[in-house]
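@channel sequence for tomorrow's demo:
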Amino acid sequence: MLNERSIAYTSPETLTSPTRVDMLGTPLDPVTMVGAVARIDEAIRSRRHLRHVAMNAAKLVATRQDPLLRRSVQSAELVTADGQSIVWAARLLGQPVPERVTGIDLMGAVLALAARRGYRVFTLGARQDIVDQAVEKLRRIHPTLNIVGAIHGYYTPEEEGDVVRAIVEARPDILLVAFGTPRKELFLAAHQQQLGVPFCMGIGGSLDVVAGKVRRAPRAMQHLGLEWLFRLIQEPRRLWRRYVISNSSFLSMVLMERFRVQLSGARKPSPEIDTDPARG
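structure tokens (generated this afternoon):
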């Protein structure tokens, strides 16, 4: 059972960005894809912990309702804008980020980096058949990719200790966790120090996309910020609550914050002008 004490917090051995901004109480790192990959490469080479969280509207809303999820996100060393709505909202609230750095695109860039550098990769999560197909495809795409372990996500709570030990024994440089939210964030925050893996990231359903079981939105829809709509059309029963309700809540939060900022700015007193020449 996870509690606040089990969540790992940033230590001197981590690589938290000094330039991160606040997005409705959630940290956000204003990095590009190139910058994010460079930080990950640095973390692996220096053997320092770097845990990534991909932030979207649904997850940000969830952090308001789940204190453990909120603490796990706040303690992550790298938080990027996964959703286009996050990029737009950050700009509207005066905390702009340079671009969208999605989890699935970052995963692809990290795997390409691993293939070039010879970094060891471990995947955790998804169904066994999805894992097998995804690993096979990744090895076709990157013939030099060194996948040192892959465990499905359908284990019992009693088996979690064995899973953690298996990861530790494999000594990966990169750990990709294909759980949903908040499970992946809480797992990584709770076990980051024990695992000793330089770079960890939650990848959600990305292995399903790699395996060809789920299609990703066309590039045009991604650029328009409509990837959520494409996913909703594919899986309406599973995702309608997440997207319809969460997106409405997120929009409300952003507009209220925008109004608050404008109101506080309007109430600031004008600087007093001294007209007494004797004081000059």
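heads up for whoever presents: The radius of gyration is 21 Å.
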